[in-house]
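To whoever is on call:

I kicked off a structure prediction for a single chain this morning and the downstream step that reads the tokens threw a length-mismatch warning. I double-checked the sequence; it's 602 residues and nothing unusual in it as far as I can see. Pasting both halves so you can look.
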Amino acid sequence: MVKLVLKFIALNTLYFCLASANFLSAQDLTAFEVIDNESVGLTVTPYEKYGMAVADIDRNGYPDIFCLRWKSPSYSRIFVNNQGIFQDITDQSPLESIEEVETGTRTCLWVDYDNDGDRDLSMSTDTGLFLLRNDNNIFTDVSDEVGFVGQKPPGFISSWVFSLGGWADYDLDGDLDCVVGQENNDNLYLFRNDDGVFTNVATEAGLDGTVLAESSKLTWIDIDQDGDPDLYSAYNVFRNDDGVFTNITEQIGLGALKESVWREFFDYDNDSDFDFFKAVSSPESGETNEIWQNQDGVFVNVTADVGLTLSADRYRGMTIGDCDNDGDQDIFLQLNIDASLDILLVNDVVAPGDHVFADVASFVGITKTGDRKGAIFFDYNRDGWLDIYLPSAEHNHILYKNLGGNGANWVGFILEGTVSNRDAVGSLVTLYTGEKKQIRYTVCGNGFVRQDNPWVHFGLGYDTSIDSVVIRWPLGYKQVLTDVAINQYHEIEEPTETSVETQQGKSAPLTFQLEQNYPNPFNPTTTIRYSLVAPEKVTLKILNIQGVEITSLIDGEVRSEGLHQLVWNGNDKSGQLVPSGIYIYHLQAGEFSDLKKMMFIK
């Protein structure tokens, strides 16, 4: 009872601040201003729009925009970004010839499917699937050539609309696969990518006859954080177990979900697991907007506890990110009603462990109404503050620049895979500052007609330093970053080594020693420690149970006296993850030799 009263007081205090003249300083919010489209090269695009895809397609360090045409006589547009100024390069693609024939463009996602360094364009329409390979921003339709093709379902039907559900390396082989839904089709498509050639494996993956009515609303998330991407639709969550999917919706407490067109898993309370937010698409649905907290793997509806009082309305888009850089992720909801403002729900901590959401849109410069469909957070000018982009038939584009100015700090990471997929989709990034811990999971496709926030972005609030950052790359290698500078983006390439070695102590131990690895059994990384009483030439090899060398972690290199440790990521000498089984690690240091067993379990 006392906790409820305190929360009531905190909520009312927050709402009082919203109405006060000192609101911005009291709440440490930022302000937004509308950018003139022509000043940043966003040219007139007079057609009905519905959604967008954002990514750095040419890897020049600035995010580019695909602006999605819905059903009108004009065409979708590709805008590349050069230091905050956009240029329309649609004529360098076959988009116009495709959209002359196709009646509706549904979902478009940027993805480096062939791991060649530039991002290609995948798209779905009312009647087809398309994959446009990108070669230096020149696009070629390779759909038929690579097998990225859908079929008309059997029976007497007049509509078989396709919708891309997103890309992920579901089988952990180093390249990205794609899930696709289709209207009037009981079965999904799961296109497995084998060196750039696609095969539909939905049946063997257990994804047939599962999400018929909601197949346009599919997204990937590693909900259990076990290293492989799971799949969720508007109503269903499917756990991935070695490439086979099981519906766990009831098991995790989300069996009562209804009408959740706009939704996302994200860690709103910074307790290191993924919570769930959903918004309805129509006031006639009879359903409500909700937040569900992840409590030890079971989801509990906490909508009232967090002060979420949104009424059902005609929401046409959403995006999530830390727009005020305070270390808590916020929610932007886009309304497609002429006289209504969009909604910006700031996430505020009112007591340790207690978060509330309040709409501040009218206080921070959200001003545009009229025809608009879709919304994203992204940092178009790379200043560390998340801006907002909305496609609009009435205004062509709406770009809200985030002015920052509240004194908060931030850090960002632009990840590139080497052993894993080039886009680093499926990376889990954990940031530690003092007692606070934040997580982000990288995806390619955020749901229906949306791909946003292409980089990993963290607000730091008033923290002036970062303790550490841990990156779990898609194939399992864990990389620890320390001495990370704040208020800048860091371009991080996945290490290709099978191990990372650090020296733990400078004083010489009394004996040579090889310790038992930990954890053991392990998946996919383990730590090996050894001690040297004097500098020695060291060799440390991993062998299989038959004694055949799998990889060499140290090969005859001199190491100083003291305690050393290495982290092995479970890869062999060719960079491939080893099979489950027993392995031997053998240390040779001068005259000293020892070996121990360890077990790897997938």
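Update from on-call: the warning came from a stale cache, not from the record. Cleared it. Sanity check on the structure: The two ends are 46 Å apart (CA to CA).
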